[in-house]
Amino acid sequence: MTESQIADNFLKIRQQIKDAEVKSGRKEGSVRLCAVSKFHPVDSVKAALKADQFLFGENRVQEAYGKFTELNDSRAELHIIGQLQSNKVKKAVEIASCIQSVDRESLLEEIEKQASKLEKNISIFFEYHTAEDSKSGYGDMDSLFVSLENFARGLYPHITPAGLMTMAPFSQDEKLVRLSFEKLRNLKETVNEKFPELPVKELSMGMSGDFSLAIEEGSTMVRVGTALFGERDYT
Ligand SMILES: *Cc1c(COP(=O)(O)O)cnc(C)c1O
After folding, report:
1. d(CA 130, CA 103)
2. How far, in Å, is the centroid of ligand 1 from the Cα of 38?
3. Number of the ligand 1 atom closest to the C-alpha atom of 165
4. What is the 3-state secondary structure (H, E, C) of the chain?
5. How do residues 124-182 score in pLDDT, each as one tens digit?
6. pTM for this one?
């Protein structure tokens, strides 16, 4: 995609975000846009920066590392949004401000270890499994609560548990999609009641096909790739 096409897409998506905020009685500007640049070249990221987009999402650490070190622009902020192997955590902590795809306790232990070495504080979102066809994320409340209790006990001083993330089912059935977002919103309320001392505020939900619905259901951050940068070339 050309720079001007990408600029146009940002205008269009920002307007749609605003419309969804207004429609659902949310405050304008209350939803952050995370531009998912995975599989797209560094030139697409540069075009986004020109369009005043500074928050990016990538799902593969190796790819993100190459791209964002080459970019070397301190305005760019990176979130890791894909499943993360423990041996990739070191690099992830180096380049990202947030890991949105935390799905297990052992990953938190590794993030803490690496963040502590770098004397860096990093945010995380707990990814939660809210739809039948998704494989990633914590699959039950009990295991999530074990992690939250460990935060409450002060086990992870270099990590800020800042929110929850989910992926809705890839379905044309709006009810199913909404149900998934509603589950995450309700989960956040439960978490805030049980752990009022933890700063779990963000709801990262909504992608190219469903971000307006997600905003209506309370999303505070949408992760949009295709609608901004075009189809991904996986070959
Ligand atoms: C790829 C990806 C997105 C963006 O998906 P689009 O449909 O291209 O907007 C969002 N969230 C996660 C976790 C992803 O892996």
Report:
1. 13
2. 8
3. 13
4. CCHHHHHHHHHHHHHHHHHHHHHCCCCCCCCEEEEECCCCCHHHHHHHHHCCCCEEEECCHHHHHHHHHHHCCCCCEEEECCCCCHHHHHHHHHHCCEEEEECCHHHHHHHHHHHHHCCCCEEEEEEECCCCCCCCCECCHHHHHHHHHHHHCCCCCCEEEEEEECCCCCCCCHHHHHHHHHHHHHHHHHHHHHCCCCCCCEEECCCCCCHHHHHHCCCCEEEECHHHHCCCCCC
5. 999 999 987 667 899 999 999 999 999 999 999 999 999 999 999 999 999 999 999 99
6. 0.97
Residue 156 and residue 108 in contact, taking contact as beta carbons nearer than 8 Å: yes
92 Cα: distance to centroid of ligand 1 (angstroms) = 18
Distance 223 CA to ligand 1 centre (A): 6
Q: In DSSP terms, which residues pair with 34 in a beta bridge?
A: 223
Give the per-residue pLDDT at 132: 77
Which residue CA neighbors atom 4 of ligand 1 most closely?
A: 225
Contact 83, 107 (CB under 8 A): no
- Encode pLDDT of 65-82 as tens digits: 999 999 999 999 999 999
Pocket of ligand 1 (CB under 6 A): 36, 38, 59, 81-82, 167, 207-209, 223-227
CA of 194 from ligand 1 middle (Å) equals 30
pLDDT in tens, 119-132: 999 999 999 999 87
